[in-house]
Amino acid sequence: MRIVVAGSSGLIGSALVPALEAAGHRVERLVRPGSPRPGIAWDPAAGTIDAAALEGADAVVNLAGRSIGERRWDDEERRLIWESRVGATALLAGALAGLRRPPAVLLNASGVGFYGNRPGERLTEVSAPGVGFFAELCGAWEAATAPAAAAGVRVVSLRNGVVLSARGGALARLLAPLGPSWLSPYRWGLGGWLGDGRQVWSWVSLEDQVRAMLHLLGSSLSGPVNLTSPDPADNKRFVKAVGKALGRPVWLRIPRFVPRAVLGRGLADTLLFDGAAVYPERLEADGFHFHHLRLEEALARALGR
Q: Which of 62, 178, 198, 240 is buried most, with the most CB atoms less than 10 Å from its CB?
């Protein structure tokens, strides 16, 4: 298949592209102005895309979006986060809808943030949306694919969890929140759970994330699909598993005010203290089997142990 990928330089995209190529697919990247890579030009901020170059694509994967964890959330940052997802998706979906022969499938990123902060609930794809900025963002992000779906494209909204990789994403920021690896609290035996540690994090290994996306390209599923392991874990278990994988003790309780002071209240609460136990009901019912079912094994592999 000829597959067009947006967001190919991110954590998931940089693992997905070689996996697609290894499976025999021809991959083309959507690239922004100034990118050193060849590809199909688009500029979501300017609202432009080379739609003609999308003609003949068999599938499109959209992983584009500004990082949500690197800057404090003021009004401008929230706007940029929103536009990089909702605006970019609307631009792409509109372009696909206008093609003479739209692609068969669009895999479009979303997140388990759709469900909001839901302690004590078991959440599947039929669960109601949550409240808050990220829940609203994910709802609008998914809704922005509507023009493509109306044109007959099979649209899958990938409700991604915490993707486990030491190379980037939430796990890398947890290991080294101040940047340099030598400042990692785990390196000095100062890792700890956040608040009471009861908030549930829904996660998936990077390998299973990519495998699931390849599965969905050939599936008949459409609509929301939870890309999370069936073993969601509370924060206390999560950080203890990180410590075990690194051979370091984890014994501290980190009060809420510490990450709030570093990240700002809105960002810290959304990323670190909100929790949702999300299960991959539709993915498993479709015959997908996870390679990494247990958190401890997945973290040991992600951290090279």
A: 62
The neighbouring-strand residues paired with 223 are 156
Distance between CA atoms of 254 and 265, rounded to whole angstroms?
15
pTM: 0.94
123 forms beta bridges with 278
Low-confidence ranges of the chain (pLDDT < 70): 176-183, 305
Looking at residue 259, what is its pLDDT? 87
Residue 182 has a pLDDT of: 52
Over residues 212-235, the pLDDT tens digits come to: 999 999 999 999 999 999 999 999
Residue with tokens 């990089």, as numbered in its chain: 84
**Residue-level pLDDT at 170:** 82
CATH number of 2-163+204-227: 3.40.50.720
| Domain range summary for the chain, segments of one domain joined by + | 2-163+204-227, 164-200+232-278+289-302
Characterise 193 by phi-psi region: left (phi > 0), alpha (psi -120 to 50), beta (else). Answer: beta
Cβ(106)–Cβ(64) under 8 Å? no
Report the alpha-carbon distance of residue 152 to residue 116 in Å, rounded: 30
Distance CA 17, CA 23 (A): 10
